[in-house]
Write a structure and sequence with these properties.
The structure holds two protein chains of two kinds. Chain A is built from twelve helices and no strands. By secondary structure, chain A is an all-alpha fold. Chain A has a domain of 192 residues: Orthogonal Bundle (MetI-like fold). The chains are: A mainly alpha, B alpha/beta. The structure holds adenosine-5'-triphosphate and magnesium ion (MG).
């Protein structure tokens, strides 16, 4: 949504500037509209508008939901706490994400960081292995015939179903949780990378052949950049799935992650804490997704503009 | 001994149970420094022939020999300028040429020498000013120039051009033809160019290879273009040799081997 508005703003600027701009007869070019400086207020106003247009509607939605929730949960026999009660009970969690008062009494920010660390390790491994396996499956018809059916079956296994196996194999909760992240995130990376590799235009392959690029050069100089948009689609799906899986995995493995916090809160009936944690998880998941998308747009800028 | 020898080449494409014989018994001897054009109707197998010389397409029967050695796979000594430029969109103009130069001259030239060589080749096609632009930011004619610079930068024994100016407007095309003529005059490369354009073939070539219609296309006729170099487009318009050559090609294409729509 932000992008669409940005585009609107620049398009508007072009339209405003063009009629006044004269074609430079000697070079036959129209001077870029950016060259003409506009007064600060005129440049600031659209930016302000863009912010309002983007921020106001979701803010309004949140307020409405909170209001509805407040009314619905205010009855005497209501089983869920209304927003005001959550604020009362879990204020410290909301306003102070980074306090530290003992191993299990820490701010939600710390817990999120612990979970994020696990996701970072598991997801990075999944990204590296996934791109390599995807390249193999995309490049070799026999690798595809052999591996693709297996991948298609394995990817439907729910993340948590891997947990008992990995606990048995690693005998420790930390590597088990990381393995669950890895095995959850890897499938979309493999599958999207393979599609991207299969879609490399024959022209690029011909160029590589004429230049006699070896396998490593071909991988880094042709495959990865050419398939980058697909790879990042896979990574984006993968990071979303990792974040889904980590919370569930931590509920079962314990430790100090955000998942275990929710489980712990449930066992001691701190519903308000759970709701605050849910909001933390949602917001962090949203930013994780945006982060990967952002890196993706920067990396694939070249590939996409052709 | 000829420089590049195409010796009784046959090509049959096999797809499942169906097989199509595209080229039949193609033989051609090319001298070093010669400019040869291949002309023929669409689908007759010109690109196939070029890809065979490049080593990109395997031969069914016969052989291609460069300096007496059989061509089996693609390599930079037979650089290709592809029909649709085939620049890598994520690399800048400079980096597209650099990819080729670094690969081909990586062990033989220093970094500074390679840089000079890249810039020299971009200069040859007058594209040095756009060195930091990406392919999407330059025009079709400019992309084709960079493609030519990339081909030249490999210092190939034979430069293969597949309809290099096919997708361009008449003015840009004329301009690039002049550039290519000049480069050929300066460097003396051996060049094989596929074209649909009779004027282009006559203007640029020492010899024009005319192919019959497929399937099983053969070389129908080879025409020597005995025009002095350097050639000037405007002077040629009324030149008798030019007109005769042009007529011969047109007659071949439109009288004796008229294009028949595949039924
Ligand atoms: N990989 C392939 N498999 C099967 N048939 C092919 C293959 N490549 C080309 N052909 C066939 O070979 C014939 C010649 O194709 P080619 O591309 O060489 O023609 P061309 O002369 O370059 O045509 P144009 O002038 O339109 O580029 C065509 O009939 C085409 O269908
Ligand atoms: Mg062709």
């Amino acid at each position: 949504m932000g992008q669409a508005v940005m585009k609107d703003a620049t398009a508007g600027a072009t339209v405003v500037a063009l009629p006044g701009a004269k074609t430079d007869a000697k070079h036959g070019v129209v001077p870029l509209p950016a060259a003409t400086r506009k007064p600060l207020s005129q440049r600031l106003l659209p930016a302000l508008r863009a912010v309002l247009v983007n921020v106001l509607p979701p803010l309004l939605t949140v307020l409405l939901i909170a209001l509805f929730w407040q009314i619905a949960a205010s009855g005497p026999q209501s089983s869920l706490p209304p927003p005001t009660k959550i604020w009362e009970e879990a204020k410290d969690l909301i306003v102070e994400p980074f306090y530290w008062a003992g191993t299990q009494d820490i701010g939600l920010g710390w817990r999120i960081l612990v979970s994020l660390e696990r996701v970072a390790i598991g997801f990075s491994l999944a990204a590296i292995v996934g791109v390599l396996l995807g390249a193999l499956v995309g490049q070799s018809i026999w690798a595809m015939r052999g591996l693709d059916p297996v991948f298609q079956v394995l990817r439907t296994v729910p993340p948590l179903a891997w947990l008992p196996l990995s606990l048995a194999a690693f005998r420790d909760s930390q590597p088990s949780a990381i393995f669950v992240i890895f095995i959850t995130a890897i499938w979309p990376v493999i599958i999207n990378t393979a599609v991207g590799i299969r879609n490399i235009p024959q022209d690029y392959r011909n160029v590589a052949q004429v230049l006699r690029l070896n396998h490593v050069e071909f991988f880094f100089k042709i495959m990865v950049p050419s398939a980058a948009p697909y790879i990042f689609t896979g990574l984006r799906i993968g990071v979303g799935l990792s974040w889904l899986a980590i919370v569930a995995a931590e509920m079962l493995t314990g430790g100090v992650g955000i998942g275990f916090f929710i489980w712990d809160a449930w066992n001691s009936s701190r519903l308000s804490d759970i709701i605050v944690a849910l909001i933390y998880i949602g917001v962090v998941g949203f930013f994780l997704d945006r982060l990967v998308a952002f890196v993706g747009t920067i990396v694939t800028r070249g590939t996409l503009t052709n | 001994m000829s420089y590049l020898k195409i010796d009784h080449v046959d090509k049959t494409f096999q797809r499942g149970a169906t097989s199509t014989n595209v080229l039949k018994d193609i033989s051609l001897d090319i001298v070093k420094g010669e400019y040869v054009s291949v002309i023929g109707h669409s689908g007759c197998g010109k690109s196939t022939l070029l890809n065979i010389i490049a080593g990109l397409t395997p031969i069914t029967a016969g052989a291609v020999l460069l300096e007496g050695k059989e061509v089996r796979d693609p390599g930079p000594e037979r650089a290709v300028v592809f029909q649709n430029h085939s620049l890598l969109p994520w690399l800048t103009v400079y980096d597209n040429v650099a990819l080729a130069v670094n690969k081909v001259f990586g062990g033989r030239k220093t970094k500074a020498e390679r840089h000079d060589w890249i810039m020299h080749n971009l200069d040859l096609v007058q594209m040095a000013h756009a060195r930091d632009k990406r392919p999407a930011e330059i025009s079709g004619g400019m992309k084709q120039r960079v493609g030519i610079a990339r081909g030249l930068s490999m210092e190939p024994k034979v430069l293969l051009l597949d309809e290099p100016f096919g997708a361009l407007d008449a003015l840009t095309r004329a301009h690039l033809q002049d550039s290519i003529m000049q480069i050929h005059a300066t460097l003396g490369n051996t060049m094989i160019m596929i074209t649909h354009d009779v004027d282009e073939a006559v203007l640029l070539s020492d010899r024009i290879v005319m192919m019959t219609n497929g399937p099983s296309a053969r070389i129908g006729e080879v025409l020597d273009v005995r025009l002095e170099r350097p050639r000037k487009r405007l002077d040629l318009v009324s030149d008798r040799t030019y007109i005769a050559a042009r007529e011969a090609v047109l007659k071949f294409l439109y009288e004796r081997h008229r294009f028949v729509e595949a039924a």
